[in-house]
Amino acid sequence: KVYAKHKNTRYYKATVVKIERQIFCLLDFDDGSFSDDTFPEDIVGYSSSTLPLVGAPVEVKWTDGELYGAKFKGTNIVVMHFVQFEDGVERDFKRHEIWTLDEELPKHVRSRLSVATERKYSLLYDEEIKAEVGDHHTRNKPKVSYSKLNG
């Protein structure tokens, strides 16, 4: 069990379901930027089994669908942790992005820590709500006079 960042940007408990080594490519782009986590498959004409020579010019298909020129600088092997959250969502993380349950959590993680609840899923079927709604399909809510509240 670990704490990890869900796609909703909050941190929840999750279960590590798989750990595997991932090869990332190191690239110096023609515009002066750098990447240390590009998948080999994103380099046009190459894969993890056929990598370019160090220093070779390459074209990289980026997340915007465009091709960008770069120089291949080598590879970086990273251990990736694939986790599954209680709602079934699966995500992958590098080790420094997850925390075991007994590790000290950084302040930014503690401030966004949440606990998954089933309440929002069972709300529509809860007998208490069904009884309150009754046959008229609306909840009885007391009327509030905001003008009286404001004095």
UniProtKB/TrEMBL annotation:
GO-annotated molecular function: histone H3K9me2/H3K9me3 demethylase activity; zinc ion binding
Entry keywords, A to Z: Chromatin regulator, Dioxygenase, Iron, Metal-binding, Nucleus, Oxidoreductase, Repeat, Transcription, Transcription regulation, Zinc, Zinc-finger
A GO cellular component entry from the record: nucleus
Required cofactor names: Fe(2+)
Reactions performed catalytically: N(6),N(6),N(6)-trimethyl-L-lysyl(9)-[histone H3] + 2 2-oxoglutarate + 2 O2 = N(6)-methyl-L-lysyl(9)-[histone H3] + 2 formaldehyde + 2 succinate + 2 CO2
Xref: InterPro entries: KDM4-like_Tudor, Tudor
Protein family per UniProt: Belongs to the JHDM3 histone demethylase family.
Name the record gives this protein: [histone H3]-trimethyl-L-lysine(9) demethylase
Protein species of origin: Magallana gigas
